[in-house]
Write a structure and sequence with these properties.
Distance between the termini: 13 Å
Structural class: alpha/beta
Radius of gyration: 20 Å
CATH superfamily of one domain: Bacterial extracellular solute-binding protein, family 7
Order of helices and strands: HHEHEHEHHHHEEHEHEEHHHEHHH
Helix content: 40-55%
């Protein structure tokens, strides 16, 4: 069943996948437009994040090439125009043309974004994640996220898996009970997970994590694995615990819906047409970055701990019982998406 669902990826239609529901566009020549559209993007992160070079920049390049230069995108770092936490809302309001980030800042502005970010102990890899979100017509959880985005004056246009969002700690973790009482920097969905495992989540800005680890204010942090060397965590932690709380964490890219409607159909189809390709290209780039980051950790004297299959099964059951309902209760659409995620994992044999 698992192999069957993944094979469906090759047969999907990306054009219907991301079409704006109910949209009607005036008659126009189906071709590259004469004018150049200029967009300004600001993600909720800067160039030090792995999502910059391995996610957003390749997507921008692909869009400009696919639209034959009829769209030009200026990329600004977090804080250049607005704060990282405000960038999602600024894009919806039209202050920015585009945004990239995680679950719309962990779901605060759009809880359905958590379905795309990655469920606690959810899909094991980016291929399974794609099958559930778009590749297998039985689930198509991505349609729920797209509808939620449209309702907020946004169009979801890009996606990438950053690989595991793992635990980076000063203490070994071989089972979920080892997290009991441990202070870990965690926000949004990983905070829900850590609390469910008996730990003590600590809210902390990304720039303060290194100091917190060095001083002992926290015992560890949750972070995307490919970014640990960018943050120099290998200097202040001892262990990387795989696959962490989320085996396949994702970033999303959104465009202001009015800006999206301002394109002609040829341009929209070109951008929709690179959604799947850039997903797999950038996800592979991130996977390579994960391997490199773990190698850097080991060379610095750190240790990589992999949960046993039995422990992954235990953690997944606990996460589904205690964490997933907290995601589901945020909206009716979120509840529908959570139910589909559970059905998908059951169908592929992971539950």
């Amino acid at each position: 069943m698992k192999k069957h669902s993944i094979k469906l990826i090759a047969a999907l239609s990306v054009f219907s996948m991301l079409a704006l529901p109910g949209a009607v566009f005036s008659a126009e020549k189906y071709a590259k437009p004469d004018k150049v559209t200029k967009w300004v993007f600001q993600p909720c992160f800067d160039s030090s994040d792995a999502g910059w070079a391995n996610g957003l920049v390749p997507w921008i390049k692909a869009v400009e090439e696919a639209t034959e230069g009829s769209i030009k995108i200026k990329l600004e770092p977090s804080g250049a125009i607005t704060s990282g936490s405000e960038a999602f809302g600024a894009t919806a309001a039209g202050m920015l043309d585009g945004y990239a980030g995680w679950a719309t800042v962990y779901g605060g502005d759009m809880p359905e974004g958590m379905l795309a970010f990655g469920m606690a102990m959810g899909a094991n890899n980016y291929r399974d994640a794609w099958a559930a979100m778009f590749g297998d017509p039985k689930y198509r959880i991505g349609d729920i996220v797209q509808k939620a985005a449209n309702d907020r004056n946004l169009q979801w246009v890009g996606w990438t898996s950053q690989g595991p969002n793992a635990m980076f700690t000063k203490f070994p973790v071989n089972k979920w009970e080892d997290l009991s009482g441990k202070k870990m920097r965690a926000g949004g969905p990983h905070a829900l997970f850590h609390a469910a495992m008996g730990g003590a989540p600590v809210a902390m800005g990304g720039g303060d994590i290194y100091t917190g680890l060095k001083l002992g204010t926290i015992d560890g942090t949750y972070w995307d694995t490919g970014g640990i060397d960018d943050m120099a965590f290998q200097e202040v932690i001892k262990y990387a615990i795989m696959p962490g709380w989320c085996p396949s964490q994702h970033q999303e890219i959104y465009v202001n819906l009015d800006a999206w409607k301002g394109l002609n159909q040829w341009q929209r189809d070109r951008i929709n047409g690179i959604f799947m390709d850039t997903y797999f290209i950038t996800s592979r780039m991130h996977a390579q970055g994960v391997d490199e980051a773990l190698e850097i950790l080991e060379k610095a004297g750190g240790e990589v701990i992999h949960f046993s299959d039995e422990e992954v099964k235990r953690m997944r059951a606990k996460a589904i019982a205690e964490v997933w309902p907290k995601v589901a209760e945020k909206s009716d659409a979120s509840a529908k998406g959570v139910a589909l995620w559970k059905e998908f994992l059951q169908d592929i044999g992971d539950l």
